[in-house]
Amino acid sequence: MSDTVLLDIDADDVATVTVNRPDRLNALNVETLEALLDVLDEAEAADARVVVLTGAGEKAFIAGADISYMQSLSVPEAQAYAELGHRVAERLETFPAPVIAAINGYAFGGGCELALACDLRIASERAVVGQTEIDLGITPGWGGSQRLPRLVGDELARRMIYFGDRVDATDAYDHGLVGDVVAHNELDDVVSTQAAELASKPKFALQTAKETINAVHEEPQGAGLVYERRAWSGLFGTHDQREGMEAFLDKRDPDFE
Predict the structure, then answer these.
(1) Rounded to an integer, what distance in angstroms lies between the CA atom of residue 104 and that of residue 126?
(2) CA dist 155 to 102, 140, 175, 217, Å?
(3) What is the pLDDT at residue 228?
(4) Considering Cα of 249, then 1, then 193, then 50, what sign does the dihedral take?
């Protein structure tokens, strides 16, 4: 199994899944996305009662998709990458137990999208969240355009996506994007306490509650997710996508058309 994702299951059957690329701010390349799927399968096979998703290091939860990988993708390659990201998000969303995102730092782009696919979000006071794809010449491609408006409302979602706004932990809480904000050095303890409490609840009732809540949005969201994948991948090969990602990697301002 890849060491880009770590799995730890404690005595309460709480599975902690850690994206382990701190030198890249836990950016998600193909290997890491595939490892996430494998680890979630392992957690389900181990009968995990709760999953906690977090990132290694002190700076980032998941800073997003791997821009150095995305930069030169063709439309078919981008479509495949979008489908892989969607598979991970949908796996989190449909995992047969609650999933908590422990947002310990930056959660941008694809990182924000995976947090949105979790059941609950607990943020460190240092957390910063955003759908920042617009400055790369693309749009959210792993579910953000569908899940974000459902969580925070249409107006705020449009502002976050159109402007690429980055929202600090306090504002994220005020807008309902996260359910708790805690001191950075208390994040692990708070997440552990809530996860243990959830793990003590009746397993099948929790699973049924999750399925029932998800069913409220399932059908219309499914159609929207299909459209989003196609729209996102169709932007690859455009001037703005190439320029946006090249400028990001070069650490300069982009020159969009």
Answers:
(1) 7
(2) 26, 16, 11, 19
(3) 87
(4) positive
Tokens of 82: 């979008």
What mean pLDDT is predicted for residues 93-99? 97
Element (H, E) at 169: helix 169-174
Can you name the residues that pair with 123 across neighbouring β-strands?
Answer: 103, 181
For residue 193, what is the DSSP state?
H
For 14, list phi and psi in degrees, rounded to 5. Answer: -95, 120
Give the count of beta carbons closer than 10 Å to the beta carbon of residue 221: 17
Nearest to 103 by CA among 131, 130, 127, 132: 127
Report whether 104 contacts 212 (CB < 8 A).
Answer: no
Q: Which residue(s) pair with 54 in the sheet?
A: 18
Tokens of residue 136, six digits: 């790369």
- The pTM score is 0.90
CB neighbour list of residue 17: distance below 8 Å, 6 or more residues apart: 5, 6, 7, 36, 39, 40, 43, 51, 52, 53, 54
| Percent with pLDDT over 70 in the chain | 99
- Percent helix / strand / coil, the chain, rounded to 5: 55, 15, 30
Distances (CA, A) of 163 to 62, 167, 229, 248, 253: 20, 11, 20, 16, 15
Q: Are 77 and 236 in contact (CB under 8 A)?
A: yes
pLDDT band at 216 (very low <50, low <70, confident <90, very high): confident
- The answer for residues whose C-beta is within 8 angstroms of residue 30's C-beta and 6 or more apart is 69, 81, 84
Which residues carry out catalysis? 113, 133
The pair of structure tokens assigned to 50 is 């709760």
